[in-house]
């Protein structure tokens, strides 16, 4: 069977894409490939200086690319609102692809500008708010996709609706797993609501396996759980470069007729590396009742309309 590679990327001329966290790692590779394939590509980055360097790097690699920078701090809902407005202007009212890539992992106890637990607030709530605020330009002039990055770590995740912000207790890996599980539940609920509303919008998810990115390098050493310990012991063997980790993201973003709610990741060695293929979701990631409850609570926390889709 043919393994999907970058040679299979379609031409994307006439489309507009946004990639969050596009200044490094999976996001930087994703943005470069989309821009090189002809999409007007907006790099949504927290640090303006690093963002400018990323834009310059794309322009050096693809001189004809239409690439632009938007400042976005997912840990600050006011920044999310400003970024959504800027994206609408830069996209000229049309957005075909949103890649919710940015994320943080295994942090010590920290809070966002709005008081949310940092991993849940950044990885899930920031992207939830950005997506809802971009609905007026998503899919208004043709089909659109929202691709949200999850992780193998979603398998250890549990959603605690009574303590989403870890106010009673905190574990860095427990919080990370919850945020990545939330990404998958958000994807399924967004897709369900878009279909119910008759919108030309498909929501999908992807994960990069074990990839050598700044996210992994910056995080504390894996320890404390069987799952984490296994990853730590096997990381030297299984880790792949960001260029390979981006393949499932690009696959989800461009695969013709990909079903809504699909989830893609590497195909080999327990989904840690290899060509992109359908990935396995935990049972908790397939719970429609929890997906709806999380959506409603996320809307309440971010002050947005749960019925916006």
TrEMBL record:
Keyword check for Endoplasmic reticulum: no
Family matches, as InterPro entries: NAD(P)-bd_dom_sf, SDR_fam
Start and end residues of each stretch annotated as Disordered: 263-288
Alphabetic keyword roster: Oxidoreductase
Gene3D superfamilies (UniProt xref): NAD(P)-binding Rossmann-like Domain
CDD domains on file: retinol-DH_like_SDR_c_like
Source species, domain of life: Bacteria
Family, similarity comment: Belongs to the short-chain dehydrogenases/reductases (SDR) family.
NCBIfam families: PRK05854.1, PRK06197.1
Protein name per the record: Oxidoreductase
Species whose genome carries this gene: Streptomyces pakalii
Biological classification of the source: Bacteria, Bacillati, Actinomycetota, Actinomycetes, Kitasatosporales
